[in-house]
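agent> step 3/5: call structure_predict on target 'Cation transporter' (Streptomyces pakalii).
agent> reason: downstream docking stage needs a structural representation; sequence fetched in step 2, passing through unchanged.
tool.input:
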Amino acid sequence: MTTLSLGPSPARRDALARRIRLLVAATIAYNVIEAVVALTAGTLASSSALIGFGLDSVIEVSSAAAVAWQFSAREHTVREARERTALRIIAVSFLALAAYVAVDAVRALAGTGEAEPSPLGIVIAALSLAIMPFLSAAQRRAGREIGSASAVADSKQTLLCTYLSAVLLVGLILNAAFGWSWADPVAALAIAGVAVKEGREAWRGKGCCAPTAQGQACAKSPVR
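tool.output (status=ok):
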């Protein structure tokens, strides 16, 4: 008679929790550096896009810190109990990011200020575009396997940072090469829409999948 698995074994669950803690620590460390560089470059170049990107990094740190707090607990039951609070923090971070990006994009389209070219901004955007997808994918896989909606939600915010990096990079290059200052805020409005969607899903506890006896099924979060 075949015994169906109900999910990761306790040893595997502990290994996944350690992996998530390491990935979250790496995300926090990189985003702190990214925030400092982007905010400095944005101030020097009077670039609202770079300043917004730097503030996004600050929000990403708060989201990652919420997951780090959840997985700092060694007991699986304690981590589950912290899931609701972690998801709420991540959801609010998404919505705050969406609000800021939308307002900043509208201001830029209205012609408030004119950013100067920023080689430093181009470098940090390119680095983020190269690094963030790997961190996001690794954390998403571990979060789905262990059945943590908060870890998956945080990985989506890291992926959103990748999209913002691409938007920022294109905007900075077009501004430097052709003076097309409208390109970045138009794309940023689309990113804001994605952030609202992800924020709502995180608030509802959606987006997490883990193995069950019937195969791959969506793991229900304690959030209602």
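agent> step 4/5: record observation. The helical segments are 10-45, 48-71, 76-109, 119-146, 149-178, 183-204.
agent> proceeding.
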